[in-house]
Amino acid sequence: MGKKSDISLEPKFIDGRLDLNEVGNIRTIKDEFSPEEQAWEINTDDGDTYVKIGQRFTLRDSCENGDGTVPLRAGQIVHKNILERLAVQVSHEAAYRNPVSQAFALRSIIKIAQEVKKDGKMSYSD
After folding, report:
1. In a domain, 33, yes or no
2. Confidence class of residue 110 from pLDDT cuts 50, 70 and 90?
3. Which residues, in sequence order, are bridge partners of residue 38?
4. Looking at the 3D structure of the chain, how many domains does it have?
5. What pTM was estimated for this model as a whole?
6. What are the backbone angles phi and psi of residue 73, rounded to the nearest 5°?
7. For residues 44 and 36, what is the distance between their CA atoms, to the nearest angstrom?
8. For 70, what's the count of Cα atoms within 13 Å in the CB-facing half-sphere?
């Protein structure tokens, strides 16, 4: 058998939903769907049957504090990789029109680039 890995295969969730082991554009959420939320499509082609399974989403008004797009609790998640935060009193869509937000975002991008340059695995050669 193979060697036991140091990486835990047990899912880790924040707020009971986000699996931190998944890195990328596709994430699994821990949820149960009502019949109205489920989407099924069955196709047959040359004797083969294909089943597409998905989920229907319904946009609704916000039900908790936040900027109308992102709930306040999203900015309060505690995680070792979150180094800094900046709360500004602007709507979500117009956030980067605020000069303080622009400066914070630019500073953050510069700091990320500096950290990448320090990491031999991530840095590009000159």
Report:
1. yes
2. very high
3. 55
4. 1
5. 0.38
6. -65, -25
7. 24
8. 12
